Amino acid sequence: MSTEPPETTEDAEPGTPATGDEPVGAAEAEGTAPAADTADDAEAKKLSEAEAELAAQRLERERIERRKAEKQGPVAAGAKLSGKAADLLAAVRAVESGAKPAATVFSEPEPPRRPAPEPVRRPEPVAEPAAPAGPAPESVEAVRGVLAEGGAPEGLAPQVAAALGETAEQALREDPWQLLRVAGVRPEQADGFARALLGAECAPDDERRGRAVTGWLLEQAALAGHTALELPALTAALARQGVPDPDAAVQDTLAEGDALAFQDALDEPGAPAVTSGETGEDGEEERPVRVLVGLEQYALAEESLADGLARLINSVPKQDGAAEEWERAASGAGSAAELIRAVAAHGLVLHTGGEASLAEPAALLRAADSLGLRAWAAAHTPVGRDRFAALARGAVEGEAGRTVATVAGLLSGVEGPGRDADGALDLDLLIVLDAPLLDVETAALLTESLPDGARLVLAGDPGVLWSAGPGRVFADLLAARVCPQLASRRPDPGPLGELVSGIGIGELNQVEAPDKEVVIVPVRDAGEAVHRTVQLVADSVPRAFGVPPEETQVITPGHGGAAGTRALNAALKARLNPGPGRFGGFDPGDRVAYSPAPGRTVPGRVVGADAEGLRLTCAGEDVVVPKERVEGSVRHGWALTAHQAAGGRWPAAVVVLPGDATQALSRPWVYTAFSRADRHLSVVHGAEQALPQAVAEIPAKPRTTRLPALLRPQVPTPA
């Protein structure tokens, strides 16, 4: 059996096997690699940012487990169903009644509640709970034997033991398809393993296979950004994977508690009023509903997010500044006046615009500081944090520029104001930048961490790529219209701003660039694309624009291929920092992309290595990556994917569009890649007509999410 794990893309279709050679994981939705937790609680006195972030994520998992345990009773259906949906509900209700022994799969959430962890104050990071020990050596060896017996790579043993726990050997023997729980394993590989272990007992209609493939498909859907799948889409994907009875497979998965099912009412204009052509027992027309199935982790995070947002929207902000003081601050704020007035009166406000529009949240931060509020801003990346801090200071030297953090640092406690006695962030106003990059789990953590009466502003450019993790939080909120949303009228300046603005509305325009702010470099093939890219970064851009190679970012659609990140990084390293790669493929001075947690990329540079691991400097901070995590969490970083580059900007960007990567192009991808440049953009263009076609005709692929439906009954509709 081949062990090469597949490479996935952001919008991979559920049920379509991935191809390539990248590990499948949440972080690989657009190119970031997962990082395992290896913190040593017993002796560590001070946590790094990555360790503290992982600790915060574990706290969230524990909170979700508590929510699961507290849930009681089925969710009210709200409408009759027919066909497959009715069969599904009948099976689930049989479970609930005890006719079929299994876990409850429909449950009603408790009222909104926020956990109260131990109070944490700066400069101390969040206290890390006891981390689960890694798999015991004897367990790994036992699993290794089973894998060898089934013809699977023995190198998977540590991952299998970690995924399946102490009884991994027994679990694999009883259900060989459990191998699908390991990232990178595909159904055809698990089938081969099962045939080797089970022999004649292995059959396509084995219910164990149906359950495992159902869970695998839901994981693949999460990698593509979905928080759940509609029941027909899931059963169709199961059929494509050779499951003979998809409906039974879904029912078995729900009965075992491996997934959750939901009914969401549909209120779209023009939707039919009944689901089965009949009226209800009371004579009233029934509302249409859709049945969805999702993994518990993302489903409960989305519920938690909806609860937290509803709490903010429905609450009255603290009386932390007289109305006349807010108005006085707004009157002298220019284009930010409308934003300041909206924040004065509402708990949740959305702000949209490009790079130039950040001046308005910066003015809001300064105004809040002048009013005595405990106000903080949080950006997605260290680059974004530092840029906004400089903008927030502006001409006023004060606290405003020093109250900017990264989202990860804020949640982990490494940055930010710390937490109060109730476990909430010790602030009155939080401005979250790069809001389109928020996935449901991170957004849920943020909203649950805000104290009652606090204000939240989500600011970002709606044209960029959505989050690497599941969900489309910012887009869902914009579409739901449950709170004030203000569109900035400050356009990004110059030829670059004109080019990107056109892409945002589906037009790829030729712009006048007298100072060569935008340069198109046509190429015939991928080999020429790599050659011209190296030439641009090493020679042309430094000579013509004075931008050194370390301040030029290369962006390309994917990791694989003749002009993907691997090929480009190898060529750029050979030119800019040649060396033998003596530290796990890296040398001091190498530019890297470090993923401290799934879905997040931090640019850095290699300093050296020792017995503790690979030493990096990232955003001015020293980071040590344990050697066992280097392969999974550190890449060379001269070239990134657009998702890895989102949230950052550089003086110059070189966007590589090889002919073999045209299927990955879309309007959000092009918008994101082209808008990463401040002063100069070079486009190494081999995509021919695929580029204007992508801009004009290929919007973001839809994601199935539940946030609007969850918010609808909790938030009054604006008049």
List the total number of helices. Answer: 25
The rounded distance between the terminal residues' Cα atoms is 60 Å
Helical proportion, percent range: 25-40%
Mean pLDDT: 82
The computed structural class is: alpha/beta
Principal-axes shape call: globular
Quaternary structure state of the chains depicted: single chain
Strand content: 5-15%
Regions with little confidence, pLDDT below 50 for 5+ residues: 2-47, 71-89, 91-132, 269-279
Note down, in words, how this protein is organized.
With 719 residues, the protein is an alpha/beta fold. It is globular and about 80 Å long. 38% of the residues lie in helices and 14% in strands.
What topology emerges from the helices and strands here?
Blueprint: H1 49-70, H2 83-97, H3 137-149, H4 157-164, H5 168-174, H6 187-198, H7 207-223, E1 229-230, H8 231-240, H9 246-255, E2 260-265, E3 289-294, H10 296-314, H11 323-331, H12 337-345, E4 348-352, H13 359-370, E5 375-379, H14 382-393, E6 404-406, H15 407-412, E7 429-432, H16 440-448, E8 455-460, H17 473-480, E9 485-487, H18 494-504, E10 518-522, H19 526-545, E11 552-555, H20 565-576, E12 591-597, E13 600-610, E14 613-618, E15 621-625, H21 627-633, E16 634-636, E17 639-640, H22 642-645, E18 650-657, H23 667-674, E19 677-685, H24 690-697, H25 707-711
Helix pairs in contact: 2-9, 3-4, 3-5, 7-9, 8-9, 10-16, 11-12, 13-14, 18-23, 19-20, 23-24
